[in-house]
Amino acid sequence: MTNKVALIVGPGHAGLGEALANRYGQKGYTIALLGRNPNPLNDLVKTLTASNISVFSVTADLASPASVSNALKEIAQKGDLQVVLYTATMRTKNKPADLTSDLLTESLASNLLGAVTVTNLALPYVKKTGDGVFLYTGSIVAAKTGTSDVEQSIGKAGLHSYVIALNKELSKSGVFAGIVTINTYIRKGKPGHMDPNVIAKTFEDLGNNKKAAEVQYH
């Protein structure tokens, strides 16, 4: 039997990527971690391997479709790509009046454009499984922006619109797309609603139930 692969794009350091990897890994998925910098990816591979999770990492620049395409080809050699979890984000402190198109474009590579690139290039692989899932990490800043998170807000607002439309388009294809909008902080090691393990379960539930395009997590 071919391995089922769950890809986590931009696992980050807040703990959500690790929690998602543990949750899907314990369900029998081989976990693929994709990011730009190899060192944190390798550290996370060691952590997950110690928990008996089947995991590997690949590097790619989300601003480069060719780089993402090559990474996906490598991932596809490990099994059937069935789940894509997009958790990449970029937080900056640039004020609106100081924002330039170059600064915004740089942040959009993680907050929005990378999600579009990954989805577009991964979709042919995921469609082959017949019941694949794309899940994306949304944020409260998409609707409630401040002066210090305007770039992330613009990206997450665009991501929200993109995923809702994608869900409608894919609804009859067997592939599901959904977004979890997180209305709290993520705090690794802190019990309660900020616990990334609790948040990760919300992602899994959305992917399993497929009843709504969006879940608001509080």
CATH topology: Rossmann fold
What would you give as the CATH superfamily?
NAD(P)-binding Rossmann-like Domain
Number of helical runs?
A: 6
Order of helices and strands: EHEHEHEHEHEHE
Shape verdict: globular
Unreliable stretches (pLDDT < 50, length at least 5) are none
Please name the CATH architecture: 3-Layer(aba) Sandwich
Number of domains: 1
Count of distinct strands:
7
- Structural Rg: 16 Å
Strand order of the largest sheet: 3-2-1-4-5-6-7
Mean pLDDT: 95
Per DSSP, what share of the residues sits in E-state strands of 2 or more residues? Answer: 15-25%
CATH class bucket: Alpha Beta
Helix content: 40-55%
Largest sheet: 7 strands, parallel
Structural class: alpha/beta
What separation lies between the terminal Cα atoms? 39 Å
Please name the defining characteristics of this protein.
about 220 residues, alpha/beta, Rossmann fold, seven-stranded parallel sheet, 6 helices, 7 strands, about 45% helix, globular
